[in-house]
Amino acid sequence: EVQLVESGGGLVQAGGSLRLSCAASGFTFESEAIGWFRQAPGKEREGVSCISSSDGKTYYADSVQGRFTIFRDNAWNTVYLQMNVLKPEDTAVYYCNMNSIYWGKGTLVTVSS
């Protein structure tokens, strides 16, 4: 059974940092690209970042480019999202995703002004 479990969310002041983790199981982790999405209150879910399986290529939404970094540790079946210089508009539930099919339950990030 595929499982994705996010952690690391919390309350932080604007300008602060958080590191989110997505622990994966139930599939061949190193063979799959993993993405981070977020959904703010009253808004649609949007893509934030993703990392490829083989060559480690990364993608970032314009809104987080230069502030967020995605990386993976295949030995621990985990993908991380390092979030720096957080802004109130980054407040959302953050989800990780595999194959556009499997989702975690999310972790809440709240950035206070």
Description:
The protein has 113 residues and is an all-beta fold. Helices cover 0% and strands 52% of the residues. It has no helices and 11 strands. The strands form 2 sheets. Strands 2, 4, 5, 6, 9, 10 and 11 form a 7-stranded mixed beta sheet that branches. Strands 1-3-8-7 form a 4-stranded antiparallel beta sheet, with no helix packed on it. The chain is globular and about 40 Å long.
Which overall shape is indicated by the principal axes computed on the Cα atoms? globular
Unreliable stretches covering 5 or more consecutive residues = none
Q: Count every beta strand, where a strand is a DSSP E run of 2 or more residues.
A: 11
Query: Radius of gyration over alpha carbons?
Result: 13 Å
Query: Span from first to last CA?
Result: 40 Å
Which class do the helix and strand fractions yield? mainly beta
Helical residue percent band: under 10%
Please state the average pLDDT score: 96
The topology string of helices and strands comes to EEEEEEEEEEE
Q: How many H/I helical runs?
A: 0
The biggest sheet, with number of strands, parallel, antiparallel or mixed sense and barrel status, is: 7 strands, mixed
Beta-strand content: over 45%
